[in-house]
Amino acid sequence: MGRIAYVNGQFVRHGQAVVHIEDRGYQLADAVYEVWALFGGKLADPEGHFARLERSLGELRIPMPMSREALTIVLRETVRQNRVSEGLVYLQVGRGVATRGHAFPDEPVPPSIVITVSSVDRAATEAKAAKGVKVITTPENRWGRCDIKTVGLLPNALAKQAAKERGAAEAWFVDDLGFVTEGASSNAWIVDADGTLRTRDTNANILRGVTRHTLLDVLREEGVKVDERPFTPAEAVDAKEAFITGAGSLVLPVIAVDDKPVGDGVVGPVAMKLRRLYIERARATAI
What we know:
- By secondary structure, the protein is an alpha+beta fold.
- Helices cover about 30% and strands about 25% of the residues.
- The strands form two sheets. Strands 7, 8, 9, 10, 11, 12, 13, 14 and 15 form a nine-stranded mixed sheet that branches. A six-stranded antiparallel sheet has the order 2-1-6-5-3-4.
- The relative contact order is 0.15.
């Protein structure tokens, strides 16, 4: 069975899925997206993703294409038709189709919606986590509303490509003050030289990561204090451990920054424990 996509009310074969040439998401990046991890065919961190979707749409003044309940049904049906148990679900909602112009259409148009599902080899991702990954740094050059999860990701794509060309898995953006903001598709964390968990606060023009939020809940339940304070690339190198979080990476240890080893340059126990705890929580609460 081939892959199936949901496009504006219809389930279609992935290779035949199309959007209108004047879809504003395609032409103007006038759209937002969400990515759910799938565990056992169920959507991980559902409340966090739905809440962020609704917030992002509200910030762009795009209406929800349907109720949360109805969207849940459509998401689940797309997963079912693709027969994927472990993987990722991509949802994109845009303002819709209108004659090209920068301002919003004079008459409201129906929002556009696209859903796709892809499988993930969990054994391969666990092996990757056990080995750890490298990151590079790059100057922060994105727009001033990175808290909105829009599809305008060209700076992120260029940063990811630069990381790939240097044998790294992720790129960390660094602001004018020399602090890491976040990764191209993840939030950044360290266990600093004093053993304190640190990650940047979400008031600093970074995405309100859903995996990040769930991990913070886990840490509170474990009685672990987190310092939501920025760190520099040099502090990351001097740290005991570093890791990234996201729907695709989950909790992924970082062993080098700009080819400089983090701590001892090997995967540490804290990151791997947090990965296990996060996955346990995600599987238990998935819907």
